[in-house]
Amino acid sequence: SSRLLGKNVLITGASSGIGEACARHFAQARSNLLLAARRQERLESLKKELESKYSGIKILTFELDVRNKANVNAAVEHFGQVDILVNNAGLVIGLDKLEDITEEALDTMIDTNVKGLVHVTQAVLPKMRQRNKGHIINIGSVAGQQPYANGSIYCASKAAVASITRALMHETVDTAIRVSEINPGLVETEFSVVRFRGDKNRADSVYKGIEPLNADDIAETVIFVAGRPEHVNIAEMLVFPTNQSGATTVYRKP
Ligand code: NDP
Ligand code: 8X3
């Protein structure tokens, strides 16, 4: 959409999966990219690739761990004006019963998916309020609407994202700032590899017998949401692969 031309788009978790695909799609729409993640070398090679493909767009990268508030503030300072924030950085660790979840996994999920999203939003929002302009797009999950066994903390973290998104929508209702949430079902990214701590075979089994969404499918929805006219806010979207109907209801070809 030409509405995205020249916009400054901050994408957290742009080093992989949905965030990386969002970077490609916003670049194609001639937006400027502000790319953040812990693995900065990946951001640098993405930047090189997209700069050579699309002339005239500006791309900045920043090594960011969203769990660290000072690091977040430094990133947002470095980036300058943010027109669109895609709060995408997030992860799940393990598929475990509540009593088996380690303190480290608990902290990692809550600190990244909830506190990290809050840190980035807090860093960006005051300037959006000053300008009375801006769009915050949060990546939630079907898991935030439908908790499933062995997913308690991840599901809770995404339920928190839903609550924060809706509360913020209320808090900005008297402004031109838009707040949106996109809730994907199964998307094949590095998500399950991270979940199973690098066990690629186990990760692959999550997508056996079903054609999952890919990162581009979700990036297309992000672009759609971001590209509506300023008086239109897509408040919420739930996006499934065709053979998924709920968090754990998936049809798999035998
Ligand atoms: P990936 O693992 O492919 O990407 C996750 C991204 O998050 C990476 O770029 C990673 O970058 C970044 N990230 C993780 N921790 C941090 C951190 N502390 N600070 C900064 N960046 C961080 O998974 P997806 O693309 O699938 O995940 C993106 C979002 O989509 C997540 O919020 C996830 O919960 C959500 N989602 C995914 C679904 C799926 O089925 N895949 C379904 C529904 C929602 P780095 O490691 O370099 O920091
Ligand atoms: C990711 C989807 O169902 O694996 O949010 O939790 S699920």
Task: Summarize the structure in words.
- It is a single chain.
- The protein has 254 residues and is an alpha/beta fold.
- It has a single domain, classed as 3-Layer(aba) Sandwich (Rossmann fold).
- The protein is 43% helix and 16% strand.
- The chain has eight helices and nine strands.
- It has helices at 17-28, 40-53, 69-79, 103-131, 152-171, 191-195, 200-205, 215-226, and strands at 8-12, 32-37, 59-63, 84-87, 135-139, 178-184, 187-188, 213-214, 236-239.
- Strands 3-2-1-4-5-6-9 form a seven-stranded parallel sheet, sandwiched between helices. Strands 7-8 form a two-stranded parallel sheet.
- Helix 1 (17-28) crosses helix 8 and helix 4 runs parallel beside helix 5.
- It is globular, with a radius of gyration of 17 Å.
- The termini are far apart.
- The model has no long low-confidence stretch (mean pLDDT 98).
- 2-hydroxyethylsulfonic acid binds next to loops.
- Residues 141-143, 151, 154, 247 line the site of 2-hydroxyethylsulfonic acid (8X3).
List the total number of helices.
8
Strand order of the largest sheet: 3-2-1-4-5-6-9
Class inferred from helices and paired strands:
alpha/beta
Radius of gyration, in angstroms, nearest whole number? 17 Å
Q: What is the CATH topology assignment? A: Rossmann fold
The level of helicity is 40-55%
For the secondary structure, the number of strands is 9
Q: What is the N-to-C order of secondary-structure elements (H for helix, E for strand)?
A: EHEHEHEHEHEEHHEHE
Largest sheet descriptor? 7 strands, parallel
